[in-house]
C-alpha cells in the first residue's frame, strides 16, 4: 500500500512519510528559527523549522528540527551540511521526542568529552543512528548488503528498497546450500543508502523474517 501510494500520489512530496523528510540537528544556542532556516534552505524547500527550548526558562537547548517537502531534500541536507550540525533523521512525532532528544544530546556530548570532536569545530565524525540501537561509528557507502534467513523475490525486494529515492540496482543471490537470501543494493548517493539502512535494517520481510542491512565498501572516498 505504501509503495502504491507513493507511486500514484500526485502530491508535491516524493513520499508522504515524515520519517524521511524531517531531520534533527545540533545548533549553537544563539540560533533563532530564522537562522536555522537560513542555514538549511539551500538544500531544498523547507516546510518548517523549530528549535527545542527549555520549558521553564525558554532558552534554546541547542537542538532543532528541519522538515523538508521531499525526502531527497532531507537526504541532501544530511549529506552536504556541515558535520558540526550532526544531522540525522528525526524520530516520528508519535514516538517519545523528549527521550530521542535526550539520547541524541547525551551521545554527542559524550563524544566531545572523549576528545573526538569539539562543538561546531566543523569536523565531527559521522555516527549512524538506528532505532532502538546505540550509535556506532561505521564506514558509510552507497552500497548495502541485505541478508535474510529466507530467500528473496527479486521484484519485491527491489520495490521495497525503491521506496527510498535513488536506487540504482538490486542484485539478489541465493545460497543453494542454506536457502538463505542475500542481495546487494546500490543507491546513487550515500545519503539514500543511509536512509535505506535506517528504514529497513530489522524490517520483517516477509513477516517474522528480519532483514539484516549493512554497508558494503563501494570503493568511493569514505570522507564524502
UniProtKB/TrEMBL annotation:
<dbReference type="InterPro" id="IPR034206">
    <property type="entry name" value="RBM45_RRM2"/>
</dbReference>
<feature type="domain" description="RRM">
    <location>
        <begin position="21"/>
        <end position="95"/>
    </location>
</feature>
<keyword id="KW-0694">RNA-binding</keyword>
<dbReference type="Pfam" id="PF00076">
    <property type="entry name" value="RRM_1"/>
</dbReference>
<dbReference type="InterPro" id="IPR000504">
    <property type="entry name" value="RRM_dom"/>
</dbReference>
<dbReference type="InterPro" id="IPR012677">
    <property type="entry name" value="Nucleotide-bd_a/b_plait_sf"/>
</dbReference>
<protein>
    <submittedName>
        <fullName>RBM45 protein</fullName>
    </submittedName>
</protein>
<dbReference type="InterPro" id="IPR052462">
    <property type="entry name" value="SLIRP/GR-RBP-like"/>
</dbReference>
<dbReference type="InterPro" id="IPR035979">
    <property type="entry name" value="RBD_domain_sf"/>
</dbReference>
<dbReference type="InterPro" id="IPR034207">
    <property type="entry name" value="RBM45_RRM3"/>
</dbReference>
<dbReference type="GO" id="GO:0003723">
    <property type="term" value="F:RNA binding"/>
</dbReference>
Amino acid at each position: 500500500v505504501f509503495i502504491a501510494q507513493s507511486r500514484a500520489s500526485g502530491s508535491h512530496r516524493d513520499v508522504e512519510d515524515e520519517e524521511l523528510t524531517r531531520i534533527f540537528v545540533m545548533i549553537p544556542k544563539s540560533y533563532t528559527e530564522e537562522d536555522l532556516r537560513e542555514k538549511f534552505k539551500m538544500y531544498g524547500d523547507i516546510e518548517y523549522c523549530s528549535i527545542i527550548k527549555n520549558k521553564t526558562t525558554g532558552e534554546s537547548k541547542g537542538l532543532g528540527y528541519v522538515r523538508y517537502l521531499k525526502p531527497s531534500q532531507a537526504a541532501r541536507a544530511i549529506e552536504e551540511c556541515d558535520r558540526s550540525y550532526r544531522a540525522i533523521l528525526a524520530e516520528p512525532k508519535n514516538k517519545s521526542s523528549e527521550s530521542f532528544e535526550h539520547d541524541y544530546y547525551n551521545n554527542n556530548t559524550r563524544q566531545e568529552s572523549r576528545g573526538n570532536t569539539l562543538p561546531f569545530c566543523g569536523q565531527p565524525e559521522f555516527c549512524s543512528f538506528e532505532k532502538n540501537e546505540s550509535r556506532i561509528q561505521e564506514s558509510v557507502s552507497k552500497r548495502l548488503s541485505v541478508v535474510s534467513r529466507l530467500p528473496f523475490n527479486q521484484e519485491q525486494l527491489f520495490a521495497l528498497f525503491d521506496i527510498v529515492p535513488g536506487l540504482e540496482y538490486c542484485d539478489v543471490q541465493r545460497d543453494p546450500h542454506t536457502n538463505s537470501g542475500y542481495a546487494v543494493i546500490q543507491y546513487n548517493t550515500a545519503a539514500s543508502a543511509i536512509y535505506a539502512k535506517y528504514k529497513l535494517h530489522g524490517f520483517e520481510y516477509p513477516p517474522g523474517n528480519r532483514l539484516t542491512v549493512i554497508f558494503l565498501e563501494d570503493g568511493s572516498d569514505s570522507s564524502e
